[in-house]
Design goal:
The protein is mainly alpha-helical and 91 residues long. The chain is built from four helices and no strands. It has one domain.
Length: 91
Amino acid sequence: MVTELHPFLRDAVFEPDEVRALALAFDDICREMDLPATAMVAREVVAMRVIDLAREGLIDPAGLKDRVLHEVHIALQISVDGEPDRPQFFT
């Protein structure tokens, strides 16, 4: 699956070891989310988010995986509840 991430890296500049880290994170995230290879749109969203986070400096595969899965969890809560839980200081 490593090659699947590469088309999204065309405009990004990463070292080979960083590309391997991003690909590892991408594969782990897709596996954890049970995204089949045919889920192209969802996989593209995951790939783009991994790359965005890496451009911000987050390269660690475990950190990338945790961050993206956390964001997915939040997004799912929003779609179910209609609005995220807001901290006390927003009320």
